[in-house]
Amino acid sequence: MNNSEVFKVIAISALVTVSLRLLPLFVKIPKNPIMNKFFEALPYSVLVLMVFPDIFTSGGTSLYDIVKILIGMVAVTFLSLKKFGLGIIVSVSLVIIFLFDLLKIYL
Fold this sequence. Notes:
membrane, mainly alpha, single chain, Branched-chain amino acid transport protein, transmembrane
């Protein structure tokens, strides 16, 4: 590829990325609760798609690591069902994983 083709690819991908990020600013559907719920759940869905596979590949394969991951997932599920904010959910899950790692070091 020459330089002009690379520039075209970068420009097109930038336009697509920016347009998709700006789409929620212009799409307001107050009469349709299904679409509103979709747009409210979109950030959580993207976060889950990015993080969820890494949970299983970075955790480890021992029984202790699997239990640690499952307890973290239960905590996230419980807190999200109780309608806590995303910052609190992430903070609590990180503290749980950190405490399990400290327990593993000292035992």
